[in-house]
Amino acid sequence: MTDSSLSVALSELTEAQSVAVAWRDGPMFVLAGPGSGKTRVLTTRVAKLLADTPDRSFRVLALTFTNKAADEMSARVTALVPEQERRALIGTFHSFCMQMLQQHGSHIGINPDFAIYSLDVDRQEILRDAIKQAGLRPDDVRLLSTIDKLKSQLIQPAGSARYFRDPSDGSRVEQVYAAYEAALTQANALDFGSLIAQAHRLVTAFPGIAGRYRKTYAYWMFDEFQDTTDGQYRLIRALAGEDFRNVFAVADDDQIIYQWNGASYQQIQRFRADFSPQELQLPTNYRCPPAIVSVANRLVVHNLQRTTAKQPLEAGKTSLKYPDEQHICVLRYSTDDVEAASIAEGIAKIDRAQWGEVAVLARTRYMLEKLQSALTQKQVNAVISQRRDDFRSPQFLWLAAVLRQGLRPLDRRALEILTGAFNRWFGTDARVDLIVTATELTERSLLDEWAVAVKAGLGDDVNGNALVDLAATFAKEPARFRQFVDAVLAMIPAQDDEASDIAEDRAAWSDLVRSIGKTIGRDAPLEQFLQELAIRSKEAPVGSNTVTLMTIHGAKGKEFDHVYVVGLAEDILPSFQSLKAGENSAEMEEERRNCFVAITRAREWLCLSYADNYRGWNKQPSRFLLEMGFSLPDQPSQ
Ligand SMILES: Nc1ncnc2c1ncn2[C@@H]1O[C@H](COP(=O)(O)OP(=O)(O)OP(=O)(O)O)[C@@H](O)[C@H]1O
């Protein structure tokens, strides 16, 4: 596309969207409902800022919630202003902090080739060792989630005891937290929480670095601002200092659904208080048919914690596939099993070519698993789509662990993973403890010693031996890792079954390599490749004829032609915990927002369902159905 693509994109904006896109200097807060074109506004604004300043060297920073969303935004900006796209840094908070620490982390003792521990098992392992070495209680490993909470509020180990009512609890946590951080430092590793916390530490300790960022990135944009955590917000504040004003945040206070993770209406209020932004509302919804817009409005007005002057959603979609009365249905069933079977039967009747445009959303994973087996019985392809922190097949687990071992020859955790994966793949029985002991005697590297151990069990297996040789060659020249990867990929058996772990991992791998290549270039060194790999989900892209099953949290920012929301019963949506917290509790309001997010994913058709009985317990229909104004069926349909 060319410069005229931007003109076309600009001409397609509504008046309100155009005002947001044309906003130049100063703080702006765009309060926008679901389907109001937030993504369109952000990408067009990035493109316009760049196109308007072709001879300027400043860059634009745009942060969003997931790497997928960032990839999509990047692709759209590239299409609009191909020659200027390199002046945009589009990523997530975590990827932005990762880059900041690669470039400047050495000021606070972080080497740029740090490892990222994204897996809880790895983190527990490191904590277990740290606890052992410090002579603390082995069961203190369960304090990891407490440590995460402290870290998300940017509380450092020293002095963390004072945040606990019981001084002995506090001092125990402080010791464990300190031991954990020391172990991470020793391993030159960071976890997700550290990325934000250390970036914050960096810019507060070295304000000059924050100043450089303000100069380089003259305009900042934040998508999904409602889900910013306390730590992320404080990082923005520290980076902005007292004078930086070009902050443009897009948010919907009716879509705060990550409260458990630190998101809060408070962050929106803090932004208003700290930056005094100009405010703009985008209430027109271009995604959903009017009937859905109207029930969404009826539902969300029951929440009190939202912007007082928030305008209700307006229906802006003009071309509709079905007559108005057929855009929503409400179904009642006798049990969860019958609900799953009947919804699956309904989906099986939809033309197979459209299955990729069908989503089933649920509050928890339990109903999704039921749906998946019901759909499988009807021969409908369906996947539970959710973030995956690691590969599943031994082949790809081995490949990733060998890369990690090549970069960090002393990394014992990498040795454990590659040994276990290879044993599963080839039926060998190499033992990590024996390999480690052998290295002490022979002074060979862990990987070389693993090769000796595993070859003894491989016999004349040609593929197995060839892979071991490839790994040994790679370990001598880790910089040539791309050749190693290509050679291994060629030896991983192809699979006919698309749902097999190997086929899914292969699809995920090629998607990851493409996305990482776009972010850091195709010649980036191994350490950067592994850092990018660590922060990304290893989930395979959903196939085109496949129904997507996801939790409501996972569906944020997505849209589908046909949306089924199942399990609309008290105790489920709203959850048991929110019922316990009470009618007007923050928890209940969050559940209502969950329901609001779920129903506003539908482009054409919405089916809401509930059963009288889940897991053997009788349940009442969800209060949200009544709040939306539905009259409920007298009898279950089956
Ligand atoms: N001006 C417009 N005219 C017609 N359609 C539009 C317009 N703006 C956005 N849309 C369409 O509305 C839908 C929603 O847009 P988008 O994905 O940007 O929404 P969003 O505001 O990010 O939603 P959510 O908050 O639910 O993630 C898309 O299909 C988009 O193409």
UniProtKB/TrEMBL annotation:
It comes from Sedimentitalea todarodis. PANTHER family: ATP-DEPENDENT DNA HELICASE SRS2, UVRD / RECB / PCRA DNA HELICASE FAMILY MEMBER. InterPro entries: DExx_box_DNA_helicase_dom_sf, DNA_helicase_UvrD-like_C, DNA_helicase_UvrD/REP, P-loop_NTPase, UvrD-like_ATP-bd. It catalyses: ATP + H2O = ADP + phosphate + H(+); Couples ATP hydrolysis with the unwinding of duplex DNA by translocating in the 3'-5' direction. Belongs to the helicase family. UvrD subfamily. GO terms for molecular function: helicase activity; hydrolase activity. Residues 290-557 form the UvrD-like helicase C-terminal domain. PROSITE patterns: UVRD_HELICASE_ATP_BIND, UVRD_HELICASE_CTER. Its EC number is 5.6.2.4. Keywords: ATP-binding, DNA-binding, Helicase, Hydrolase, Isomerase, Nucleotide-binding. The keyword ATP-binding applies. This is DNA 3'-5' helicase. ATP binds at residues 32-39. Residues 11-289 form the UvrD-like helicase ATP-binding domain.
